[in-house]
Amino acid sequence: WMRAQRFDLAWRALEVAIILDRGREVADWIVAQFIEPASLVLDPHTALVAMRVPAICAQSSQPERCFARFRELRPQLPGSATKQSDEFLTGAERYVQHDLHGAARIWRELLRGGMAMASALPDAIVDTFERTGATDLAELVDTEVMKRASQFHGATLGHGRAARRARQRGDRDRAHLLAEEVIHAWSLA
Questions:
Q1: How far is residue 28 CA from its own chain's centroid?
Q2: How far apart are CA 179 and CA 90, in angstroms?
Q3: I need a surface site. Which of 10, 73, 126, 143 has the fewest CB within 10 A?
Q4: Is 75 exposed, middle or buried (0-12, 13-18, 19+ CB in 10 A)?
Q5: pTM of the model
Q6: Do 161 and 126 contact (CB within 8 A), yes or no?
Q7: In 10 A of CB 114, how many CB atoms?
Q8: Rounded to an integer, what distance in angstroms lies between the CA atom of residue 37 and that of residue 6?
Q9: Cα Rg of the chain, angstroms
Q10: How far apart are CA 44 and CA 52, in angstroms?
C-alpha cells in the first residue's frame, strides 16, 4: 500500500510540475526513484503503473532508457500488463521518436475503449492529434482533461489549449471564456 501511495504522490507532483513547466525535472526524479532502482520499488499489482510509467518516461530527459527499463520490469508487474497498456506504451514510444502518425493511429484506437489512458498523457496525445489534423480528437481529450479542473484550482492545461483552438477557429467568445477561467483560477493559486 505504501508503494502505491508514494508513487501516487510522485504522480501528483508531476501533474503540478507540468503546469509549472517543470515536468521534465520531476519526471527525471520519478524515474530515478521508482523506475531505475535495481530492486522493484513499484507496487506490482497497481494497474495505474501501466498508464503512468510510460507517461513519465515520455516526459523524462532520457525516454528511450526509461522505456527500456520499464520493459525489463514488466514481468514483475502483473497488474500492469494488458493489451491496452502495451499499446499505450508503444504509442508513447512512437511519440518520443517523432512518429506522430504512428502514435496517433495507436492512440485513436485506445480512445475507443475510453479516456483512461489519454488522461495519463494528455499533453502529448493532444499535441499528436493536433499536429496530425485530428483536432476533433484533441478536443475530445481536452474535454476529458477539463473535467478535473477542481483538482487544479479550477483550470487545467486543457482549458488553455481549448481556448487557443477556439481562437484559431474564430470563436472569440468561447476563447475568452476559457482564458478567463484559467486566469481566474491560477491567478489566485
A1: 15
A2: 34
A3: 143
A4: exposed
A5: 0.90
A6: yes
A7: 11
A8: 15
A9: 17
A10: 13
